[in-house]
Amino acid sequence: MRQRGMRWILPGAVLFLTAAVIAAIISGSAGIPLRRIFSVIAGGNTTPEYSILIDIRLPRIILGFAVGGALSVAGVILQGMFRNPLVEPYTLGMPGGAALGAALCIILKLQDIFPAIVLPVSGFIGSCLVILPLYFVNMRRNVVRMQGILLTGVMTSFISTSLVVLILAIAKTEEVHSIVFWIMGSLEEPSWALIIIIGITAVLGLFLSYLMASVLNALSLGEEEAIHLGINTERTKKQLFILASLLTGISVSLTGIIGFVGLIVPHFVRIMTGYDHRKLIVISFLTGAGFLIFCDTIARTAFAPVELPVGVITGILGGSIFIYILSRRHLSGRTDGAL
Amino acid sequence: MIAPALFRKIVITVVCSSFIVAACLAAPAHAAGSGPGRPMRIVSLSPPITESLYLLGLKNNIVGVTIYCDRPAEARTKPVMGTVIEPDIEKIVQLRPDLVLAMSLTNPKVLTKMRSLGLKVLTHEIPDTFSGICDMFVWIGNATGTSLEARRIVDTARSEVDAIRKKTARFKKPRVLIELGTKPFFVATRDFFVNDYLEFAGAVNIFQDASSGSVGREEAIVRNPDVILIVTMGLSGDNERRVWKRYSSVNAVRNGRIYIVDSNNVCSPTPLSFARSLKRITGLLHPDDAGGWK
Predict the structure, then answer these.
(1) Does the B170-293 domain belong in CATH 3.40.50.1980?
(2) Which of A132, A197, B86, B114 could form a disulfide with B119 if both were Cys (CB 3.0 to 4.6 A apart)?
(3) Is it the case that residue B173 has pLDDT exceeding 80?
(4) What is the rounded CA–CA span in Å between residue B97 and residue B76?
(5) Does B125 touch chain A (CB under 8 A)?
């Protein structure tokens, strides 16, 4: 029964992603009717409707695809590696570091130099600067202490968040606005170049993660078991750690803080696919991408013309669906799959 | 497992090529599409800009405002383009306005996006003095081809303000606290144009030297203001007045000189509304001398 159901999961995830993309392209406050979409696209770059579809909705879809996928895969990697269901990409303190980098850049007025690129770059540098000490503090004789990483990550997260609040308290009004804009996660991004970069990075990250899926399977049995299976656990942990950090860092530095995706999606997918990371990684990427695109569509349209922060929707929707599914599973007495 | 050398190579290649792509690509710019024959179509993304456009007689040219644009009352009938901070790009692009006027409060990413789509978007910093407010008004006039009218209105407002300044120059200067926020406690420093209300009305802002508005209530009590102006709307102002009543050592509390002023009138001004608010605030600060202020 379960095996038969498995065959439908990949097409199901692809279908969900396609549905989310179509929903995103046809809905918006401009109210372009469905039957006109094709004629508008075929008509080329002459009408405002074309601009709305291609220059406004499409970049958000690509960004949602990349960030949703990247955060979900990072979540799968970290949860598998730490063997802890509460770990998510943000647990290691990268959003705090990225926010700190961006905030410093704003109060030092660096963004006047290269306005489009300097904020995401400093966010990325900030998140890397948080991760590096995390890594080196917990390296002892070439062995990475996993629980140490987790604890140090949570602590650096507190420290960098406090530093951001400190900057907010002393910054001028207009700087405070810029910093808050940055922190409020949004898929709005004017630069095509950055969107393409994160798109490529996310897909490559998916590819690399897939190559490491069987190692993750071994690692999630426990480190000792993984060693007995002939795996160089230390090297693997480092590679996985860098991969997850890269995926998280690049997402958070471009879109700000969009919570919950990296926590909810891996759990949700694990309920369907079980613990095999080969499936888990691919399905999580597709589902995460579809989920974020779908949430962004709701954020854009629910109270149009007022746009909600997408994190509000991912939190409310993701959290409620997850609790619902979990309670159903407990009622039906199933304990396999997630948690 | 991937061999470490290969893994490193892949990661480094991805990162490097990403930066090269970023350096090479630049956002394409389109030409603005305004026709000469038809009247200018303007989207305003800020309440003071909307109010200024009405004062400049451009009410028929406004095609979009924000949800906060409620002055004059007529502005509520205009199509809404989202909030000041996150305007709805789709709606704006669909309207094909000739001009989008915004203040620096609006999300810069959204502004960049509109510019890259060929819209003419002009932004102005939040003015921090009365003279800044006048400059912004003239800026709106210049952008919309009504600079003569804008200058005339600014001159009227300036002469009203000057008259008040002249009159209040000889008054005894009360020491005033302007409270802009209650939780957290936030006061007006020299960096806010509300400070000009006090200077022109013949009063001293007790926090004009503070580098940031987030000071402690304790410091406010130590500085012992003669008058407290609570800039807020609705219930929180009355609550705040009750909180202040506990500190009877403060001059303003002892003499019952705590006033609540409506933030809508005071904080989102045009030159004319500044002059009007200044008149009212002068009346509050100098009730005996001022006779005809109200």
Answers:
(1) yes
(2) B114
(3) yes
(4) 19
(5) yes
